[in-house]
Write a structure and sequence with these properties.
Layout: H1 2-53, H2 88-92, H3 107-126, H4 130-152, H5 157-172, H6 179-204, H7 211-224, H8 229-251, H9 262-286
Length: 290
């Protein structure tokens, strides 16, 4: 029996290690999504506006997730396959383009490392199961949304809406919760922030958040059920407070500069995915309710 337990533990650790490697590769692709998707959408919006105004659209680089191939943004030199190995290539190149020696941002390997470690933790927690596979997809989507929102203060429908539908489909089969909880989670997630948005706008005359935040919380509700929404909202506020105060004290960030709420929702949603039940049980025990 002890030997069987050891083999099971070893297999989970090996699966987690494999998930880390997979996450590193996906993280490399996420870097492409984070950089190119907003630019691609911006190009489409400009083209639509020009068509509406019946004017000739400006000449812009055609950009998609697949075209053109990866290249240095400064000298346009194509990136060779050996230069595109997650993390390792960055270290071998010493963080510089091999052609023009322009500096490569360290955020690229950091995103790859984050995607790898989070993927390993997901498989270590859920195993090689339907929950584990779907949780990986959710994790990668949340990483992309977090970074896009930080860069552009946008949460693209191209990610949030498929994420919501995938959560509903998964829970049709009861993967994380039942379909009824998932449906009302999506409804309540959207409407709760929609109401906060309008109340804030009526009182202050300003927009406190974007519609993408509503859709992201709806997606999290679709995955985890309406029961998880209070925990996600509390966690997002807590995470936001910590990061906001740290940014002001350590980085000297202007407190009047708006901070996107999407990353806090994404972080809170991921925490609720992995540790939500444990956190809820701890709170109930701490409050003497369980």
């Amino acid at each position: 029996m002890a030997n069987n337990i050891n083999l099971l533990s070893l297999s989970i650790e090996l699966l987690a290690a494999g998930a880390i490697l997979l996450g590193l590769l996906i993280g490399s692709f996420l870097n492409v999504v984070i950089y190119r998707l907003p630019k691609s959408l911006e190009g489409e919006w400009k083209s639509d506006c020009c068509e509406l105004l019946n004017i000739e659209p400006p000449e812009t680089e055609k950009l998609s997730l697949a075209f053109p191939s990866s290249h240095c943004p400064k000298c346009k030199a194509p990136i060779k396959p050996w230069e595109n190995i997650p993390v390792i290539s960055y270290l071998l190149l010493k963080g510089k383009c091999s052609n023009c020696q322009a500096r490569i941002s360290p955020r690229y390997p950091l995103i790859e490392i984050a995607a790898g470690l989070l993927s390993g933790l997901i498989i270590y927690t859920f195993g090689l199961t339907a929950q584990g596979g779907l949780a990986l997809v959710m994790t990668w989507a949340l990483v992309a949304l977090t970074m896009i929102d930080i860069d552009t203060q946008l949460l693209p429908d191209n990610i949030t809406l498929p994420l919501m539908w995938l959560g509903l489909i998964a829970n049709y089969f009861g993967v994380f919760t039942n379909l009824e909880s998932a449906f009302w989670g999506a409804v309540a997630g959207y409407l709760s922030l929609w109401l906060v948005y309008w109340l804030f706008k009526i009182v202050t005359g300003k927009e406190g958040m974007g519609f993408g935040d509503f859709k992201l919380l709806a997606a999290l509700g679709a995955w985890l059920g309406w029961q998880a929404l209070p925990l996600i909202i509390i966690l997002s506020s807590f995470v936001g407070a910590i990061i906001g105060v740290a940014g002001i004290l350590m980085l000297g960030r202007d407190r009047n500069v708006p901070i996107p709420f999407g990353p806090y929702l994404a972080i809170a949603g991921w925490i609720a995915l992995v540790w939500g039940q444990s956190l809820t049980d701890f709170y109930l025990q701490f409050a003497g309710l369980a």
